[in-house]
Design goal:
By secondary structure, the protein is mainly beta. The chain has two helices and 19 strands. The chain has a five-stranded mixed sheet with strand order 13-10-19-15-16, with no helix packed on it. A five-stranded antiparallel sheet has the order 12-11-14-18-17, with no helix packed on it.
């Protein structure tokens, strides 16, 4: 009995001196990804002009920083009756001034604007030939054939006289109404209501130029003719009847 107790005591003491075992373990934590806010938006161009009926305008936003989490923007217009915007493309609707705004979508509140001025296209006025019987008259503006021109356009008048005639001069007058008169007005009653004489400058090779007024114009070319006798009877008659 005593031996058994001694053995039990030894075993107990032996296991008591066994060092404790420490088992290492890893703890995994997931860091939340950082959000980079937008700090600035710059629109190009910052100001712009448009003409009704012309091309659309494209605005390009530069969003910083380059590594911003959300670089998208929302577009708004201050007056859709003047101009609309979609994806940075501005379309003119009516004459006026409008502010186009790009708003950052990341909630930073960052914006930038572009001021757009929309103007109506310049009015064109008629160029009409009157009282021309001895040749042809043509008009050009910037080298292109024209029957209309805008205020301050330089109009070139080219006159080709008929055979046996030469062009003496060209007269240009502004008018307010044509009163349904034909292009070749042969009487004062059919002529338009005239306003002003327009200065005309003679050029070379049968050309004249004038600056278009803010009105329709009526162009008249004056010719000098000569008698051409091409048969014996005509010569005989002129000598027999010198008063003819």
């Amino acid at each position: 009995m005593e031996r058994k107790d001694r053995l039990s005591s030894l075993l107990t003491r032996k296991y008591l001196v066994i060092p404790k075992l420490f088992v290492p373990f890893l703890v995994f934590t997931q860091e939340k990804s950082a959000t980079v806010d937008v700090t600035s938006i710059t629109l190009d161009p910052a100001t712009a002009s448009m003409t009704l009926g012309g091309e659309t305008l494209t605005l390009t936003p530069t969003v910083l920083p380059a590594d911003a989490t959300d670089k998208t923007v929302t577009w708004t217009t201050s007056n859709a009756s003047v101009a609309t915007v979609a994806d940075g493309i501005v379309t003119a609707v009516a004459a006026g001034t409008v502010t186009i705004t790009a708003n950052a979508n990341d909630g930073s509140g960052v914006t930038d604007t572009c001021t757009v001025t929309v103007t109506a296209p310049a009015t064109k006025y008629d160029i009409t030939v009157g009282e021309n019987e001895h040749g042809t008259v043509a008009f050009t503006v910037d080298g292109a054939a024209a029957t209309q021109a805008k205020k301050d356009d330089v109009v070139t008048v080219s006159v080709t006289p008929a055979e046996g005639y030469s062009t003496k001069d060209v007269t240009v007058r502004a008018y307010t109404t044509w009163a349904a008169a034909p292009a070749r007005a042969k009487s004062r009653a059919a002529a338009p209501e005239l306003k002003d004489n327009i200065d005309v400058t003679a050029g070379e090779n049968g050309t004249w130029t004038f600056t278009m007024p803010e009105a329709n114009v009526w162009v008249k070319d004056a010719h000098t003719g000569r008698i051409v006798f091409d048969d014996y009877t005509a010569w005989r008659n002129i000598f027999a009847y010198p008063s003819l």
